[in-house]
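Most newcomers find our protein records easier to grasp once they have seen one. Read left to right, the backbone structure tokens trace the chain's path through space. Once this layout is familiar, the rest of the handout is easier to follow. The record below serves as our worked example for the rest of this section:


***
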Amino acid sequence: MGGEGKVVCVTGASGYIASWLVKLLLDRGYTVHATVRSLDDPNKTEHLLALDGAKERLLLFEANLTVDGSFDAAVNGCVCVFHTASPVLHPVHDPQAQLIDPAVKGTLNVLKSAAKVQSLKKVVLTSSMATIMYGVKLPESDGVVDETWFSDPLVCEQTKLWYHVSKILAEDAAVTFAKDNGLDLVVINPGYVIGPILQPTLNLTSEGMLSLLKDGKDLFPDRMYILVDVRDVAAAHVLAFEKPEANGRYCMVGKVARHLEIMKIVDKLYPSLGHYKRYKDGECVQPLPYDVSRAKAESLGVKFTPLEISIKDIAESLKEKNLLSC
């Protein structure tokens, strides 16, 4: 356990990572203040209210990223805020209004609320590998990307990677605000998140995995995937709060894998999906051009889930929702 008597806040609680984080916190005995965009939307609330311990220790709050003071009530009395709320959209018609403002202003809104609370010990921010390894020259062989890397926002802007821009600017704003206001901030930087789904509707990454499982479709132009299990990301957030030594940023990538390696696992687990012919002759012998360091996350106590388990569990989740038959 570990969380008895402690009150924490999770923003954007209905999301993919946040739902698992709420589950884990309730399992550990915490009382959770969870914010959602609308208390009237059962897709945002029902799966949270059904969690073990929710009846006794989960309180839902309505909050909007772009409204000043919106998070004051939810954060009040908490010892930690886990700020996961941030839009993930594709395609984007108005990047400033749809992504950048909610990400940056929303982060500052949450931190301003946090700075008013004397009991608050720490803020844990859900950032992304988007802030670490884009718009920069990646290693070509045997190189390792780690927490000291920073994406180039100008290159991301030029290449219209608007989600990446929003996450870079939000993380920068959080670090500056925390420093100026004496807040203890820890940043979690997940890669492409996979694994079982608690929420009833699919998020963008799960939609991507569904199309990969069904059609074998490449999601990324370079055919490289930086993957992490959603449960590992949730665990990293909790450890970031519970471990006093947690500091700075944490890369959260369990496995860098090529498209072919993923499809071979899918074919082994679900031969009925019929990917065999397309991938049977391919061999996973080519060395990966780069890896992402797991050292800092592992030093925090994160135990990464094997890729095969994550793929099986997301496929089973999609089957339960009648979105995949295999």
